[in-house]
Specification:
heterodimer; A: mainly alpha; three-stranded antiparallel β-sheet; 3 strands; extended; disordered N terminus; B: mainly beta; Phosphatidylethanolamine-binding Protein; six-stranded mixed β-sheet; 9 strands; 31% strand; globular; Protein MOTHER of FT and TFL1 (chain B); PEBP (chain B); abscisic acid signaling pathway (chain B); cytoplasm (chain B); PEBP_euk (chain B)
Chain lengths: 211, 173
């Protein structure tokens, strides 16, 4: 439909009347808004305007900072403050570590996952283990996750736990005893006790134990 | 976030085994050349023989020493909490347990699974209890609180604990 295509290209802010409405915003979106136009166009006669000026179509225009108001909702949306960084997948990349909370443990992602799986398996098996402080504080989340799965107790959760813990018996023992042991406790199923550094490399060590 | 910095609270010794107390006596424990501080790691091979314990205080006061393990058989499943290793009563102040009456002979730490805490608790006795105390029927499922309540020992006057785990059978290469 020619009308819907042209309305998809209309920009909301270069109208004289400056009518901001959800329907006019949706009409600026490239694809799916066209489905809703029949209902919105009956309410708002402004959206039936044909576009007069279209060169300010917010497509990719090099690395120059684009007017943010024109580019809302498009994949090339760039942030207000640094209009010069390259963005992919909608994620922002900064030079600093601000706000990044995943502990990398000096390992690539596959090794990191395997390390955490092994550590949670051993903690659930032995009840108290001694490891470095970074590893102990990184594994808290996953131990709590396993205990939460055991608290739920359904077959699906059991299979999810079996996919994470390396030993079957530990999962079955966990599912058997967790409701008695942690039934009333909401979260915080581990405790970390800092201890003396390791002799070989002076790494700060900690005991992590199940509460 | 630790609500307290006292190592006995952080290590949950107060809570699992004891109640909150104010230490009024000094006790220094030595396994061989190694002095025991709260939470230090001891190898079972160095703890085969009973430790040297020096107790402060006057010689007319009598003390009771109890050594237990609240993490028996495994810290994740402490079914046999607590396992008592050593009970000595009627120790005169200022001396060591060899001068007291050993109710339960010393058993060395032998943790099968995991890292166990071994707690040495000192009580001050109000009166000599040597004749009334008998050996507990079994070492397992001991309760230090009930033991203290039974013989009217009150709150402990000193406590220290250490960790031990099973040593690997062969030396790591």
């Amino acid at each position: 439909m020619a009308i819907s295509m042209s309305m998809a290209m209309a920009t909301p802010t270069d109208s004289v009347s400056r009518v901001w409405s959800m329907s006019s915003l949706k009409s600026a979106l490239p694809s799916t808004a066209s489905l809703r136009l029949p209902s919105s166009s009956s309410r708002r006669p402004v959206t039936l305007r044909l576009p007069i000026s279209s060169p300010s179509l917010p497509s990719f225009s090099g690395l120059s900072p684009v007017n943010p108001l024109l580019s809302i909702g498009l994949p090339d949306w760039q942030s207000f403050e640094n209009g010069f960084k390259i963005v992919d997948g909608g994620g922002r990349i900064y030079a600093m570590r601000h706000g990044r909370r995943v502990p990398k443990l000096n390992r690539p992602p596959d090794q990191r996952k395997a390390l955490l799986r092994g550590l949670t398996t051993q903690l659930l098996k032995h009840g108290r283990i001694k490891t470095t402080r970074a590893r102990a504080s990184a594994m808290r989340k996953f131990v709590d996750k396993m205990i939460t799965l055991a608290k739920d107790g359904s077959l699906h959760k059991r299979r999810q736990a079996l996919g994470y813990i390396y030993e079957k018996q530990i999962v079955h023992a966990l599912f058997a005893e967790v409701p008695d042991r942690y039934g009333e406790r909401n979260g915080g199923y581990t405790r970390i006790i800092r201890t003396l550094p390791r002799r070989g490399d002076n790494a700060p060590m900690a005991y992590i134990e199940l509460v | 976030m630790a609500a307290s910095v006292d190592p006995l609270v952080v290590g949950r010794v107060i809570g699992d085994v004891l109640d909150m107390f104010i230490p009024t006596a000094n006790m220094s424990v030595y396994f061989g050349p190694k002095h025991i501080t709260n939470g230090c790691e001891i190898k079972p091979s160095t703890a085969v023989n009973p430790p040297k314990v020096n107790i402060s205080g006057h010689s007319d006061e009598l003390y009771t020493l109890v050594m237990t393990d609240p993490d028996a058989p495994s810290p994740s499943e402490p079914n046999m909490r607590e396992w008592v290793h050593w009970i000595v009563v009627d120790i005169p102040g200022g001396t060591n347990p060899s001068r007291g009456k050993e109710i339960l002979p010393y058993m060395e730490p032998r943790p099968p699974v995991g890292i166990h805490r071994y707690i040495l608790v000192l009580f001050r006795q109000n009166s000599p209890v040597g004749l009334m105390v008998q050996q507990p029927p079994s070492r397992a499922n001991f309760s230090t609180r009930m033991f203290a309540g039974h013989f009217d020992l009150g709150l402990p006057v000193a406590t220290v604990y250490f960790n031990a785990q099973k040593e690997p059978a062969s030396r790591r290469r």
